[in-house]
From TrEMBL:
Organismal lineage: Bacteria, Pseudomonadati, Pseudomonadota, Alphaproteobacteria, Rhodobacterales
PANTHER family assigned: GLUTAMYL-TRNA(GLN) AMIDOTRANSFERASE SUBUNIT A, MITOCHONDRIAL, TRANSAMIDASE
Key word Hydrolase present: yes
Signal sequence residues: none
InterPro entries from the UniProt entry: Amidase, Amidase_dom, AS_sf
GO molecular function, a single term: hydrolase activity
Keywords: Hydrolase
Name this protein carries in UniProt: Putative indoleacetamide hydrolase
Family: Belongs to the amidase family.
Amidase domain segment(s): 28-452
Record bears the keyword Hydrolase: yes
Amino acid sequence: MTGTEIWQLSATELATHTRNGDITAKAAVEASLSRMAAVNPALNAVVEDLRGEALERAHALDQARNNGTTPGPLHGIPVTIKINVDQNGHATSNGVTALKDLIAPGDAPVVKNLQDAGAVIIGRTNTPEFSFRADTDNPLFGRTHNPWGRHISPGGSSGGAGAAVMAGIGALAHGNDIGGSLRFPAAANGAVTVKPGLGRVPAWNPSQSAERGMLAQNMSVQGLITRSARDLHLSMPSLIAADPRDPFHVPMPWRGASPDGPIRVAFSKETYGYDLHPEVDAALEDARAALGDAGYLVEETKLPDVFDAGRTGYRALMGEVYALMKGDVDAAGSQTVRDIFAVYFEEFPPFAGAELLQMMAKRTQYARDWSLFMQDYPLVLTPFLPQPFFKPDRDTEGATGVHEVLGCAVYSYAMNFIGLPAASVPSRLAQLPAGPQPTNIQIAAPRWREDMAVDACIAIEDRIGPMCDPLWAQMATKL
């Protein structure tokens, strides 16, 4: 098997070969490092190359296996880590120049869990300043580009992760999500992800000097971006391993009970006043048809008010950000990010004082409404964005730009506010004037049932196909 073939394998395929001994950890890592050397200069997705450490670890894994150690579930799988999460001995810069020398004194739980499972970290991926944009650019490392073309943003804030994994740099990419930062890059690059629910994946940065705000704690989650939906079933059980440093982590198994009979899926095209683009409409219909063909019962129905939950949740988050984070943004952020935050506060007027506390309390009402609704419809199929993914720097273009990028993404941050899992999977390769562009949809699931959302993604992917093959064919003509 050649190096080119190895980097193209899904994590699930690669893990089968590495665990069986058909491919060494070193060969798997070398293939990804070669791919990174070939494509990353044009993408700037990985901003810290860890090839030296990666090759040493791969060699150690191979030696241990030869000495009789049972390989882990992710044995030799090349992965990337986002630069806003602690990795021992490396800077947790968060895309901020002032933090470029903030060296982590230890590993965050997700880094430990991936390595305990046998994964090999080959690099650290880019994020916007403070990890608070749906696009990825910063003064410290520069812009990340989308492998589909420079007319499409790579998404954010895990934009480096999404671009890297879809370009073939590593089989798994770590990211995180407070309002869509796993799902935006998945949608931008045609990748697959599931935003875990509240309490699912342990989180903490040993480098942090203070605890995050309560909404940040309750809305932000750690996860993975993959090329194949099945790779989430392979990798997420390792990611959710318990860690005592997160006292609110809930050690639930990855798989829940199989439902009795066909699974009912609530389907909605409601966009709350935003225009639904024909290609997004077609992507939704393709996903509905795929799920129906797989035996799901898909029914168009009215959902609990996503717009109210999403907008209330993001205005509450902006209230917390204004009180706890604005000073840091003003002091250490670029003029670009300061201007963007100013427009955020216009798009989502921050709640403050007693009203902020009341809106935080209202979160339980929204969560209860969804919990009751999901007794009848365990899965919910909706748009992620109402239009094809936006161009780079769209959020720097004032109120209309931020409105297009975040204002319309209520299906995204509503799920963060109420703490539900939400998966993103491509269901159509749109043919737009600028070129082909993946179009993802969102599938929400009940608490603790990320596995159900991933199963639905697999059903769609099996019938529509993954986006990596057409992407790699397009990239091959440009390299």
